[in-house]
Fold this sequence. Notes:
Elements: H1 8-15, H2 19-26, H3 37-50, H4 55-61, E1 69-73, H5 79-94, E2 99-103, H6 109-118, E3 123-127, H7 133-142, E4 150-154, E5 173-176, H8 179-192, E6 197-201, E7 216-220, H9 228-244, E8 250-253, H10 257-269, E9 279-284, E10 298-300, H11 303-314, E11 323-325, E12 329-331
Parallel strand pairs: 1-2, 1-3, 3-4, 4-5, 5-11, 6-7, 6-8, 8-9, 9-10
Antiparallel strand pairs: 10-12
Amino acid sequence: MEKTTPKIAEIADRLGVSRSTVSYVLNDKWEKRGISRATAEKILSYIEETGFLPNPASLALKGKRVKEIAILVSPRAIEHQRRAFFSLLGILEEHNKSYMVLPLTEDSLPETAQFINMYRVPKVITVSTPLHTGLKEKWARFFKSSSGIDFFYYEFPFEHMEPGTFLNSPGSIAIGINRKKARKKALEYIISRGYKNIISPKDIFTTPRGGYPGINFMEYGIRDPEQLFKLGKFIAQQLPAIREKTKGPLAVYVNDDLASASVMKHLSENGFNIPGDFAILSWDGLPESDYFRLPLSTMVIPHGKMLETARDWINGKKFTQNQIILDIEIREGQTLPKI
């Protein structure tokens, strides 16, 4: 006879407990509500047998590890971050690590933290930590007692957050770049190539502007970065009007390789020459950007080093430092020639 899935009321009636008791057990709040372990085990055993709840909750209640690692990723992760996420999954599969994938957003954090704590996951990898103050506050609240969990913060935003709130165990590591310093390096590279007219998104080069007399800074608007090819077209449509008001060579900074490919495509289709009319420096360092219409000049995010560090951490290597800030490299293509 095929099993049917019982409802909470049916479970409560069958076991002679209240519906709220069943609910508290399902939500891992039985201890806080004064429900005995024996009652919690009885409820979980029953619902496990009837297929109402996956086995992991019952195993976690009995103190057994369900998954070795949880990997968290923001749904708004952009292309290079998605690639890093799948590379990390590949490393976990390669080393036969059991894992669960959970969302990383401010709204989903309470449920994500509940899963990690309830299933007693000892290691957590986060990809692309969202830059929200609310997330930082919630993180501190939901993981304040999680000193037994080791976290690996992949591409940690050092320029926006102090990692102290997040590094709540000796085995936790934050690795990434400081984008503020990296963008300063990008700006100085553009200037070193001889360009005095620089177009970029708003606020990208705001902080260091005062230190560069004689440089003409201009801005273009941006849209949702998830639509990268549409974003590139949107950027390209703004550039001709800026050029009409500017004398001399123009350098355009674009914050994504795929958007840069779209910028070049739309400019070329409208009769503009790259790099003669618009020179371009991009950001990401995607491998295929070497094979665009012109090999792209781009800032290369050091994913190789970050992934190797993650591999070592996954395999239990002990590190002497828990904050690793890497430098960003410049790959010289043909879109930002020296003048």
